[in-house]
Design a protein that fits this description.
2% of the residues lie in helices and 49% in strands. The protein contains 3 helices and 115 strands. A hairpin with a 2-residue loop joins strand 48 and strand 49. It is elongated.
Length: 1310
C-alpha cells in the first residue's frame, strides 16, 4: 500500500478517536485463540511468520533460574493437547540463554556461559550457533530483523547500541548513545527497536533542564542518528512527559507515550514523513504499554481490565473494525497478567503470567471470521471439601470455552448424587446431612463439572502440643541482672495453646539460674547458657549471654517514627533506652526537647507534643550521653471540605416555562452529611434553562442540559430534559355534542382537534366509531345513520386522544317529526333541521313553517337552518297547516356556555428520578378548553404508596422504596400525571470492616490497619475515609492512615469511624524479644554486611534490615525529610521535588558492593542502597543525606574525618558526592552529602584515583524500580514502617510493608 494511503488511514483513525467517547464497550477481536499451557516458565516470546521462539526453564532442575531457547510453529501449539510440552530445544548449555529474537533463518539471544552476557546467533538451516561478542562488558537484549541484529552494550561504561551486519559477519556501527533500557519508574527492560531501515531506542532526559525520556532513531542507510521521533502536533496541549518501548515495522514506529495524562497511551509515526507528527492510537484513562507493530497491526498491553490484557488495532481492517481498539484476551483477575506481545502478520504471541506459572498465548487474527465460543469445560471450586454434619459449604462454578477462556453469563444447575449425605441448593450451597461421600455436579447444557464432599461422622481430633517458642531468644545480661522468659505453646495446627504448664531449666548454672516454674533467669557469671522450657516431651530453647561489662545507656529509640499531625493535634512520644548490648533499660528517665518551638512544643517529662503551626521539627529524647530523635511534620488541614455531592432529583422532565428546585446532599471525606455546605449551581446550556443560586431551574427551550452542584472539592450532577413546546394533540371536540334522531335519520358529525395551548390543529386524521352498531353506524367521515331506537356514543379518536357525542335514536313516526329532536351546539354553530310529516291526509306537499322560542339562544330560517347565538336552551318548532288540521313537531336545542372550563391538568415535573428517603414537591397547572391557564385545586394520589407517598393537598412527594410509581393530580373529572422512578437511597456509611480485627504486637512494633466502608446496600464506598482513634494512648497510638505504633505492654482498641458508624479492632501488646548485641562495623563490607543499627524498647524491638518511608502531596520546590533511619549509618534523607509528587516511597537497606564494580577505595565503611518508587525520577531535583561514622573506626583505618566521602554507583563507576563534616558527638562523626539521584552508595575514604565531583559528572538521576505490586492509593501520609527483604530484588519486600494498600502510581511488572 502506498505511503499516502497508509497516512490517510492513520489520519482517519485519529479523527475517529477524537470523535469517540472517552469510554467505550470492549470489542472482541475475531480470530482463533490458542492456549496450550504446560509446566515451567515460558517467557519473552518472539515471532516471525508462523515460527515462535521463547525462553524456557523446563530443564532447570536445580531451580537456579537457568533458561534455554525453544522453537515451535503455530501448528505445533494448535495440534498439541494442553499440559504437553511443545517445541524444539535450540540451546543446551548449563548456563542461561534468554531473551530470544527470530527473523527468517536466524535466532539471536543473550547468553551468560562465560560469566557475562554475550550475544549468540543461531542459523536454523545449518543448525549452528555462533558467539558474536567477546567483550568483557555485557551485551544483552538482542533483536534480529532481516540482515541486521541490534543489542545493548555497556563495555564503554555507557549503554551503546551495536548494529551487526549478518551477511558481512561484522559490526556495522556502534551507535554512541546512553540508552535507557527500563520502563519509566520500573525495572522491566525492553529491547531496542529494529527494522531493515532503522534502529530506535530511548534516551533518558535530564531533570535539571526539564527534559524527559525520548525515543531516538538511527538511519541505517545514512549511518547517522537522525533525532527524536514525533514532533508535537499543532494543537497538542502538552508535550511528551515520557516515551518508552519503541517498535518498528519498516519506516513506521510505535511507542508508549505519557502525553496528555499520567497514564501512557500508544502512538505511531512515519519516520519517512516526520512532518505528519504522531498519531494517537489509544484513548482511555488506563495504561496502554509495550506496543508491537507489523504492517497495519498494532498490539499492546492494556490495563482497562483488572490486570494487563492484550489489545490490538487493525489500521487496514475493512468495515466496523477499522481503527478500533479490540481485545484479544481479557485478564481473568489481578493475578492473570498478559505481557510482552509480539506480532507477525495476523499472528500475535505473548506471555501469560509471571515466573514459574508463565505460558505462551497465541492469537490468530481473522478479521473476516469470528469463532463462536461454546462451553466445553466447567471448573467447580473448591474441588474437594470436608465437612461435619450440619455444616455448609458454598460451591462456585466457572465455565470455559473451547479455548480455555472463561465464559460469563452461564447458568448452572446444581445436583448432589447422594441426598442422604447432603443436599445442594440452586446457588451451589451444600448442606451436610450424614456421614459419607457425595459428588456435587454443576451442569450447563450437556457439559458438567464435579467436586467431592466428605462428611465426617466424628468431631475433629484434639489439639496436640507440637512446639514451644521461648522469648526473648538471645538476650544479653549483666552479672546479677535478671530476665523474665516467656514460653508459648503451639499445636499441630499452629494454633496457640492456652493453659500449658512449663518447667524451666538452664544448661549452665555457673552462668545463671532460672526459676523452674516462673522462668525468671538470674545472671551469675560471664558466659553463655541455654534456657529450656519443657512441657511433656516438647521443649523450646533460648540462648542467654552474661557479660561482665557494666550496662551503659547507649541509644534511645523514639516512637512513633516520623509522625504527621495537623495543627492543634497532639501525640505522646515514647522513648526506649538501650544499653551497649541492645538490651532495654527500663526506668531510665529521659528529657524531651523540640528543635522548633514555633512548630510545636513538647512536655519535657511526659513527651506530649502539641502541634502549633505547619512545618517540621526534630523531637529529641536524651538520657545522659545517649539520645534519640525523630522528625514530626505538622500540616494545615488542606483537605477539601466536601468529598461527594448528590443532586436531587437526579433526572427530571419539564415543560417550557416550568420551574423546579434542585437540592444538593453534600458529604465530607468521612461520609458525614454536611448540612450547611456552600453550593454553587451551574447549567450546561443556558439556552435550555437557567438555574439560580438557590438551585431553582427555569425551563426556557427544548433540549437536555446538565445541572451541576459545585462545592469545596466535589461536585454532583443531574439531567434535566425540557420538552420542546411543539404542538401536541391534547383535545378533540365533536359537534354536535349530543343529538336525538328518529330511526332512519342521519346526521353529520364534525371533529375539531386542539393542541395543548387550545389552538386548532388542522389535518389531524380522525377515526370514528359508534358504541352500539345496532343503534346506528358512523363512517370514516363522521356521517351517522340512525338504525333503531336506543342510546349510543359516537367517538372521534386520534393518537390516543378521544372526543365523544351522545346519540339518542327514537321510533316516533306520527305527526310531524323534527330531526334531530334534541341537539347540543356551541355558540356560532349552525345545524340544518328536517321535518317529516306522517299520517296527515290530504296534506302532501304541505309547507313547513319553522320558528324558535328564544331568538336570544338561536335563530332559524324558513328552511330550518338553525344558528346558535347565545348560551341557553330553546325549542325549535316545525308547523304544518292542513285543510282539516294543523300539526306541529318540536326539537330542543341547547347552546353551551363560552365560559372557560377545565380541559386538562399538567403536572411538573412530568418525569423524574429521586433516591429513596428524599422529598420533592410537584406542581399542577390547569388549562381550559382554549389552552389558557386557570386556577384549579387538585387532589393528589400515588399509584403505589409503598414506593412513595404524596400529600393529598400540597403535592409533596416522599420516596420510600426502590420502584416506579405514577402520581396523579385530579379536579372536576380531569387529571394529569407524572412518572416517578425511585432509586436506591443515597449511599451513606452503614458498615465498616477493619482488618485485622485483632492483632498482637510486641512493644515498639507497628501494624497497618485497613478499613473498608460499605453503604446500606453492601457496596464498597471507596471515596469515604475513616477517622482512626485509639482508646488508650499510653499503650499505643494510631495515625490518620491507620498505622498503629505499640508503646507498652497492655491492650487497647483502635476504632475506625465513618459517618455515624464505627468498628473497633483489639490490639494486645506484649514484651518484645531482645535483639542480638550490635557488632562493630566490619572493615570489608564487600564480604560481610555492615551492622544492623536496630534498637528495642521496653521489651526490645525486633531488628530491622530495611527502612521504608512514605511522603505525600510534595509540591514542586518543597523538601521532605525522611529521618529516624536506623538500619544503616545514613540517618536522614531530605528530598527536594522539582515537580509535584502525589506520592513517594523511599526504601533504605544495607547491601554489598555491586557485582560489576570495583570497591571505591581501600577502606569502605558501608554500602547502602536507596530506592525511590511511585514517583518519576525526573520529579526529584536532588537530595541531602546525613550519616555517621564512629571515630574509633576512623582511627583504626588511619583516616581523618575530612577524608570521608559519600560515593554513588552510576554508569558502571563511582561518583564522588560533595561531602562535609558536620560535627562530632558521643564518639560519632556526623556528615552531610548531596546527591542528584539514588542507587547504591558507599561510605569510604576518598581514593586518589577518583577526583570528579557530582557537578563534573553529567548523570541523570535514576531510581531502582519496584516489583509488580498492586497497591491501593490513599492520600494521607504514612509513617515509615519496617519491611523484610529478599535479596533478588531491591524492593521485593514492598508487599510486606504492614499492608500499605497503595495503588502503585506508575506501572510495575517485576
Amino acid at each position: 500500500m502506498k505511503k499516502l494511503t497508509y497516512l490517510t488511514l492513520l489520519c482517519a483513525v485519529v479523527i475517529v478517536g477524537l470523535l469517540a467517547p472517552p469510554v467505550a464497550a470492549v470489542i472482541n477481536a475475531p480470530g482463533e485463540p490458542i492456549y496450550r499451557p504446560f509446566n515451567g516458565a515460558q517467557e519473552r516470546p518472539d515471532i516471525d511468520g508462523d515460527m515462535i521462539v521463547w525462553e524456557d526453564d523446563r530443564y532447570d532442575e536445580q531451580k537456579k533460574g537457568v533458561k534455554d531457547i525453544f522453537l515451535a510453529t503455530v501448528d505445533d501449539f494448535r495440534s498439541t493437547p494442553p499440559y504437553t510440552y511443545v517445541g524444539t530445544r535450540i540451546t543446551d548449555d548449563p548456563a542461561s540463554q534468554e531473551k530470544p529474537s527470530i527473523s527468517g533463518d536466524y535466532i539471536a539471544w543473550q547468553d551468560n556461559r562465560h560469566g557475562n552476557w554475550d550475544i549468540y546467533l543461531y542459523r536454523r538451516s545449518t543448525n549452528t550457533a555462533t558467539q558474536l561478542t567477546t567483550d568483557p562488558g555485557n551485551q544483552w537484549l538482542p533483536i534480529v530483523r532481516g540482515n541486521y541484529i541490534a543489542w545493548y552494550d555497556d563495555s564503554s561504561g555507557r549503554t551503546n547500541i551495536v548494529l551487526y551486519d549478518i551477511a558481512a559477519g561484522a559490526v556495522k556501527d556502534v551507535i554512541d548513545v546512553n540508552a535507557k533500557t527500563t520502563i519509566p519508574g520500573g525495572s522491566t527492560e525492553f529491547k531496542p527497536a529494529l527494522s531493515e531501515q532503522y534502529v530506535a531506542w530511548v534516551e533518558p532526559g535530564d531533570v535539571t533542564v526539564h527534559t524527559y525520556d525520548k525515543v531516538y532513531y538511527y538511519d541505517i542507510a545514512a549511518g547517522r542518528i537522525v533525532g527524536p521521533i514525533a514532533p508535537t502536533l499543532e494543537g497538542d496541549p502538552l508535550p511528551s512527559i515520557s516515551q518508552s518501548w519503541p517498535s518498528l515495522s519498516g519506516s513506521f514506529i510505535a511507542w508508549e507515550d505519557t502525553l496528555y495524562r499520567m497514564d501512557p497511551d500508544i502512538y505511531i509515526a512515519d519516520i519517512h514523513d516526520p512532518a505528519e507528527g504522531r498519531m494517537h492510537i489509544t484513548r482511555n484513562d488506563f495504561d496502554q504499554v509495550s506496543p508491537a507493530i507489523d504492517g497495519g497491526i498494532i498490539v499492546w498491553e492494556d490495563k482497562q481490565i483488572p490486570e494487563r490484557s492484550i489489545f490490538m488495532c487493525d489500521l487496514f481492517a475493512v468495515g466496523d473494525f477499522q481503527g478500533e481498539e479490540m481485545c484479544l484476551v481479557e485478564a481473568e483477575d489481578r493475578e492473570d497478567a498478559h505481557l510482552y506481545p509480539a506480532v507477525s502478520g495476523n499472528t500475535i504471541v505473548w506471555q501469560r503470567g509471571r515466573g514459574p506459572n508463565s505460558n505462551l498465548y497465541i492469537f490468530v487474527y481473522q478479521p473476516d471470521a469470528a469463532v463462536e465460543r461454546v462451553v466445553t469445560n466447567i471448573d467447580v471450586t473448591p474441588p474437594t471439601a470436608t465437612l461435619n454434619v450440619g455444616e455448609t459449604e458454598p460451591f462456585s462454578a466457572l465455565a470455559r470455552d473451547q479455548f480455555g477462556l472463561k465464559l460469563a453469563g452461564v447458568t448452572f444447575t446444581w445436583t448432589s448424587d447422594d441426598a442422604t449425605v447432603g443436599t445442594i441448593d440452586d446457588t451451589g450451597r451444600f448442606t451436610a446431612k450424614a456421614a459419607g461421600t457425595a459428588t456435587v455436579t454443576a451442569t450447563a447444557g450437556n457439559v458438567s463439572g464435579t467436586a467431592t464432599v466428605t462428611v465426617n461422622a466424628e468431631e475433629p481430633g484434639e489439639p496436640v502440643l507440637d512446639r514451644i517458642e521461648v522469648t526473648p531468644e538471645t538476650p544479653t545480661l549483666e552479672i546479677d541482672g535478671t530476665q523474665q522468659f516467656t514460653a508459648t505453646a503451639f499445636d499441630q495446627f499452629e494454633d496457640e495453646m492456652i493453659g500449658v504448664a512449663f518447667s524451666w531449666s538452664c544448661d549452665n548454672e555457673t552462668v545463671g539460674t532460672i526459676d523452674n516454674s516462673t522462668g525468671l533467669f538470674t545472671a551469675k557469671a560471664e558466659g553463655t547458657a541455654d534456657v529450656v522450657a519443657t512441657a511433656g516431651s516438647v521443649s523450646g530453647t533460648a540462648t542467654v549471654t552474661v557479660s561482665a561489662e557494666e550496662p551503659v545507656a547507649m541509644s534511645i529509640e523514639v516512637a512513633p517514627p516520623t509522625p504527621t499531625l495537623e495543627v492543634d493535634g497532639t501525640v505522646t512520644f515514647e522513648a526506649a533506652v538501650h544499653d551497649q548490648f541492645g538490651n532495654p533499660m527500663p526506668g531510665i528517665a529521659v528529657n524531651w526537647s523540640c528543635s522548633d518551638t514555633a512548630v510545636g512544643t513538647i512536655d519535657e517529662s511526659s513527651g506530649l507534643f502539641t502541634a502549633l503551626t505547619a512545618g517540621t521539627a526534630t523531637v529529641t529524647a536524651s538520657a545522659g550521653d545517649a539520645s534519640g530523635e525523630t522528625t514530626v511534620t505538622v500540616t494545615v488541614n488542606e483537605w477539601p471540605a466536601l468529598a461527594k455531592i448528590e443532586v436531587v432529583p437526579s433526572a427530571a422532565t419539564l415543560e417550557t416555562g416550568d420551574e423546579l428546585e434542585f437540592s444538593a446532599v453534600a458529604f465530607d471525606r468521612f461520609g458525614n452529611i454536611v448540612e450547611d455546605a456552600e453550593i454553587t449551581w451551574e447549567c450546561s446550556d443556558t439556552c435550555i434553562g437557567t438555574i439560580d443560586e438557590c438551585g431553582v431551574f427555569t425551563a426556557l427551550d427544548g433540549g437536555t442540559a446538565t445541572i451541576t452542584a459545585c462545592g469545596d472539592g466535589a461536585e454532583g450532577t443531574a439531567t434535566v430534559t425540557v420538552n420542546c413546546g411543539d404542538p401536541v394533540l391534547s383535545r378533540i371536540v365533536v359537534t354536535p355534542a349530543a343529538i336525538t334522531l328518529a330511526a332512519g335519520d342521519t346526521a353529520a358529525f364534525t371533529a375539531t382537534a386542539f393542541d395543548q395551548d387550545g389552538c386548532e390543529m388542522p389535518d389531524v386524521e380522525i377515526a370514528w366509531e359508534c358504541s352500539d352498531d345496532t343503534v346506528g353506524e358512523v363512517d370514516d367521515t363522521g356521517f351517522f345513520a340512525a338504525l333503531a331506537a336506543g342510546p349510543a356514543t359516537v367517538t372521534a379518536t386520534s393518537g390516543g386522544v378521544t372526543g365523544a357525542a351522545d346519540v339518542e335514536v327514537t321510533d316516533e313516526s306520527t305527526g310531524v317529526v323534527v330531526s334531530p329532536s334534541a341537539i347540543i351546539l356551541d355558540c356560532g354553530d349552525e345545524w340544518q333541521f328536517n321535518a317529516d310529516v306522517y299520517d296527515l291526509q290530504d296534506n302532501a306537499g304541505s309547507i313547513v313553517t319553522w320558528s324558535c322560542v328564544d331568538p336570544g339562544v338561536g335563530e332559524i330560517t324558513d328552511d330550518g337552518l338553525f344558528t346558535a347565538c347565545g348560551e341557553g336552551s330553546t325549542s325549535v318548532t316545525a308547523t304544518v297547516a292542513g285543510e282539516n288540521e294543523t300539526v306541529t313537531g318540536t326539537a330542543t336545542v341547547t347552546v353551551r356556555s363560552t365560559a372557560s372550563e377545565l380541559a386538562r391538568i399538567e403536572v411538573s415535573p412530568s418525569d423524574f428520578c429521586i433516591p429513596a428517603g428524599n422529598c420533592l414537591t410537584l406542581t399542577a397547572r390547569g388549562f381550559d378548553q382554549y389552552g389558557l391557564p386557570m386556577d384549579v385545586d387538585v387532589d393528589w394520589k400515588s399509584s403505589d404508596p409503598c414506593v412513595g407517598e404524596i400529600d393529598l393537598c400540597s403535592g409533596a412527594f416522599t420516596a420510600l422504596a426502590e420502584g416506579e410509581v405514577t402520581l396523579t393530580a385530579s379536579a372536576d373529572g380531569v387529571s394529569g400525571s407524572a412518572c416517578v422512578t425511585v432509586e436506591p437511597s443515597i449511599p451513606v456509611p452503614d458498615c465498616i470492616e477493619v482488618e485485622p480485627p485483632e492483632t498482637t504486637l510486641t512493644a515498639g512494633g507497628t501494624r497497618e490497619f485497613t478499613a473498608t466502608v460499605f453503604d446500606q446496600r453492601d457496596n464498597e464506598m471507596d471515596w469515604v475515609r475513616v477517622a482512626w482513634s485509639c482508646s488508650d494512648d499510653d499503650v499505643g497510638t494510631i495515625d490518620r492512615s491507620g498505622l498503629f505504633t505499640a508503646f507498652s505492654q497492655g491492650s487497647t482498641d483502635v476504632t475506625a469511624r465513618a459517618g455515624s458508624v464505627e468498628r473497633t479492632a483489639s490490639v494486645t501488646i506484649t514484651a518484645a524479644p531482645t535483639p542480638d548485641p550490635t557488632p562493630d562495623p566490619t572493615p570489608n563490607p564487600t564480604t560481610t554486611p555492615a551492622p544492623n543499627r536496630a534498637a528495642s524498647d521496653g521489651g526490645g524491638w525486633s531488628p530491622r534490615t530495611h527502612y521504608a518511608g512514605i511522603c505525600e502531596d510534595l509540591k514542586s520546590g518543597e523538601t521532605h525529610t525522611f529521618s529516624g533511619i536506623d538500619v544503616t549509618s545514613i540517618g536522614s534523607v531530605a528530598i527536594t521535588a522539582s515537580g509535584n509528587i502525589p506520592r513517594l516511597l523511599m526504601t533504605v537497606k544495607e547491601t554489598g558492593c555491586p557485582n560489576l564494580a570495583e570497591p571505591p577505595g581501600s577502606s569502605t565503611y558501608e554500602y547502602v542502597e536507596i530506592a525511590i518508587s511511585w514517583a518519576n525520577p525526573n520529579q526529584i531535583g536532588g537530595a541531602t543525606l546525613t550519616f555517621t561514622i564512629p571515630a574509633k573506626w576512623l582511627d583504626e583505618h588511619g583516616m581523618a574525618p575530612e577524608d570521608v566521602r559519600l560515593m554513588r554507583y552510576v554508569d558502571g563507576g563511582w561518583q564522588i558526592l560533595e561531602t562535609e563534616v558536620v560535627g562530632e558527638e558521643n564518639g560519632l562523626y556526623r556528615f552531610r552529602a548531596t546527591t542528584p539521584g539514588f542507587s547504591t552508595f558507599a561510605i569510604a575514604a576518598s581514593p586518589s584515583s577518583l577526583t570528579a565531583s557530582a557537578e563534573e559528572i553529567d548523570v541523570t538521576p535514576d531510581v531502582t524500580g519496584t516489583p509488580g505490586v498492586t497497591e491501593e492509593v490513599t492520600t494521607e501520609p504514612t509513617a515509615a514502617v519496617p519491611a523484610t527483604t529478599t535479596p533478588a530484588a531491591p524492593l521485593i519486600y514492598a508487599p510486606l510493608l504492614a499492608p500499605l494498600a497503595f495503588l502503585l502510581w506508575g506501572r510495575r511488572k517485576n
